[in-house]
Task: structure prediction
Amino acid sequence: MGSGYLLSPLMLIINTLFDLYILLVLLRFLLQMLRADFYNPVSQFIVKLTTPPLRILRRFIPSVGGQDAASIVLCLLLIYAKFLLMRALSIPAVQIGGVMAPIGSTSYAGLMVYCIADLIALLLTVFLVAVIIKVVLSWINPGQYNPVIGLVDKIASPVLRPMKKIMPPIGGLDLSPLFATLLLLVTKMLILPPIIYLGNF
Result:
């Protein structure tokens, strides 16, 4: 058994722990930006887990345009730390939104560019998953409400609302989620490769 025998499960643990916490911080930013119900039990769970590091960062990083810039900075710092840890473990490259990023050979500035690409990829994925969950729930549990559905509605609305204005229901069939999903996938394919290319220095 070579060194890769332990490296693969170690990478799984690192990715899972970092990515879950980064997701929570990004969700906190989105829910605050979209003015979600912070008394929602799920919102309270996210707030309690993400408040300690954000409380420290907010001493140095003010809000920008009324938005919590500290949350975005924390996401980028966590992604950067994850990439540095992977580099220390001699991981040559990672996949960001379907594109390979050579974290082992790029500069530290290039690594930060990869962090921005990774955060954009995660943001688009969050919107994509929210749209898909909303569609599935409308099929299996229409008209029902629970804390998770409320937050999913809030996250999906910035994508679905303008799409519904462009494409109203046809014969009672709402095709806006289909086109919203397609738009998010195409956006990811068009935006991420150029950003990752910029980081290859």
